[in-house]
Specification:
Blueprint: E1 19-27, E2 33-41, E3 47-52, H1 60-71, E4 75-79, H2 83-86, H3 106-122, E5 127-133, H4 135-143, E6 152-156, E7 182-187, H5 195-207, E8 212-217, H6 233-251
Parallel strand pairs: 3-4, 3-5, 5-6, 6-7, 7-8
Antiparallel strand pairs: 1-2, 2-4
Length: 253
């Protein structure tokens, strides 16, 4: 598992920040229905972000993260991966995601990502980013290959090489197809993502002239971006600043 059940984003709410958030259901182009959480700012900036969760699918961590983006004027939609196998109903902490993860496919997830992007664009939001965590980090990097005209993709400790639990390709194997700016953030003590893989990703993007920024936090583990991870509060704050800065540099404040 990427985060614990009681993990939450390490971002303080903005006092008095008015916004709107609700659970909803999206329909993908292949007819799949998937659960989602939509957060709308009181005053939007014409910027949106699709949030791709870790292996648990749509979880309160990502619903709260959507609200934190909305407080900063960024429309957000967090999507679920398991509409095809677990339906669209709300799930408790006892939901066993493990049997559902290997039943996902990259084709299905790609279609669901597009549904999230479409949901934002139907509301008039043209500048759309993706952000993902762990499983979602890999999927976010790969979303840059889908021809969705994304303003940028952000991956938080997304795996870069080798096979995964479904048939999603390795980002390192799809560098020639990347069509969006990339922000990758990694923990230097993450045993599952090697420094060599991160360096190869950075070098490959550079060689292809792709706008990107790769940040590694020395000593930080996998899934360090967590309110419970008090030992890495400084790294989490820096990562959040990187995320907002990456978006603002490509859209304006």
């Amino acid at each position: 598992m990427c985060h614990d059940h009681d993990s939450r984003p390490p971002i303080a709410p903005i006092a008095g920040g008015a916004l709107d958030g609700e659970r909803t259901v999206l329909t993908a182009s292949d007819g799949n229905t998937l659960a989602a959480f939509r957060a709308r700012p009181t005053k939007g900036r014409g910027v949106g972000i699709v949030i791709l969760p870790d292996v648990r699918g749509l979880h309160p961590f990502y619903e709260e993260l959507a609200l934190r983006f909305a407080e900063r004027g960024i429309d957000a939609v967090a999507i679920d991966y398991f509409g095809r196998t677990a339906g669209t109903g709300q799930r408790g902490e006892d939901f066993d995601h493990a049997p559902h993860v290997p039943r996902t496919t990259w084709a299905g997830i790609a279609t669901d990502i597009a549904a999230g992007v479409d949901a934002l664009r139907r509301d008039g939001i043209e500048r759309v980013f993706t952000i993902g965590f762990c499983m979602g980090g890999r999927m976010s990097f790969l979303s840059s290959t889908l021809g969705l005209d994304l303003a940028g993709v952000i991956g938080m400790y997304g795996t870069l090489q080798g096979p995964w639990r479904n048939d999603a390709p390795a980002p390192l194997d799809r560098l020639d197809d990347v069509g969006s700016p990339v922000l990758g953030q990694f923990g230097g003590a993450d045993e599952g993502i090697t420094a060599d893989a991160v360096s190869a990703f950075d070098r490959g993007l550079e060689e292809r002239g792709i706008d990107h920024r790769i940040v590694t936090y020395p000593g930080a583990p996998h899934s360090f971006f967590d309110r419970k991870a008090v030992d890495y509060a400084k790294e989490s704050a820096a990562a959040w600043d990187e995320i907002l800065g990456f978006i603002e540099e490509r859209t304006g404040p």
